[in-house]
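Handout for the seminar on molecular recognition.
Each group receives one record of this type.
Step one: identify the two inputs.
Step two: read the structure output and locate the region that could contact fe (iii) ion.
Step three: write two sentences on what you found, then compare them with the reference statements printed after the record.
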Amino acid sequence: MIDLLIRDLAQVATPGGASGPLRGSALRDVQVIDDAFVLCREGSLVAVGPMRDLPANLGSVEEIDGRGLAAIPGLVDCHTHACFGGDRVNEFSLRAGGASYEELHAAGGGILSTVRATREAGEAELTRLTLRHRGWMRAHGTTTFEGKSGYGLDHDTELAQLRAIRAAGGVPTWLGAHTVPPEFDDADAYVDFLLADVLPEAAQLAEAADVFLERGSFDALQARRYLEACRDAGLALRLHGDQFTESGAIALAIDLGARSVDHLEATGPAGVAQLATSDVTGVLLPASALFLARPMPPARALADAGALIALATDFNPGSAFCDSLPLVLSLACTQMKLAPEEALVAATANAAHVLGRAGRIGRLRPGFAADVVLLEAADWRHVAYHLGGDIVHAVVEGGAVTFRRTA
Ligand code: NIG
Ligand code: FE
């Protein structure tokens, strides 16, 4: 593998600390080196520092001229539904005309319309579509993405989704308990089926399990039964919770030692206080709140209370057709009052923690993966400042350039 030197960078910016997530005042700990270099060897970072410390006699290395550019760690999207068939543009138009997301769901549209399209697609097409979506995310600086199943809701399609996500380079999460499919008239019977017929194979393919704890999908007792069985099968735990109503997701996540509880648009002060004293990460999805015209989650209150927080796109065809983490960082700053430093940490080191990878990705440190985003700006904060802008100059993954902006 060829060594890669990125030299004469205007800035390198990285979360501080050796590994692990940052919270409280450390959530703002972004270390900036001016006039800097990044050196990659065999897929890992070997040195990051000021140009004056650049080792001499590097031998034959490929060089990238970083003049006028800032480098940040490859962004980590820890919550996506990037494996799906079809689209929901008709539903989008109906919502623009006043229909609500929850009404469409209750009428058999919403998630269930994507279930129909995903079942029809077949595994090869799902893999092709997930790779396509990965390409979109990469062009915005995402170098690691998590992808959930949850649009199959039957044995074969759930497993096909998990294999497609893995084949496309994603970190697979089993969201069998996304909603109840039409073949079942009650949620308990569907959970019985999931645990007996799908979990044994899903546990071999996925790293984590997730559940949609919300009226119209699963209640806290059903979510507990599903998650406990998934935990016993060796999966890490995640929850979709407090999106529309506070339904006990935070208490359940803490009780089960889940990695994260995601959404939290409906979380009130008691939930904030509860989460802040736990080791469960609150994953905030402001693009979803924006797309559904919902209140933003209480990010500032969570950060001030010392909670662990991460940011993600929630990329999916219904509630957040958004593949751009830089846009999410912008929303975090403008709509949720996070500092750019907090937003960067939340979408790198802390998102890596949610995926169980905080010792390997999310920081520009020797020994970490050589996943680097070069920004078309001399000040790294443009990643959040340039609202939905074309900010990514190039993306390096495992020491190889995988995306270059054209003109
Ligand atoms: O995170 N809330 C539940 N699930 C997804 C949306 C899925 C969909 O609408 O297709 C979410 O918003
Ligand atoms: Fe989601």
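Reference statements: The chain has a mean pLDDT of 97. The longest helix spans residues 187-205.
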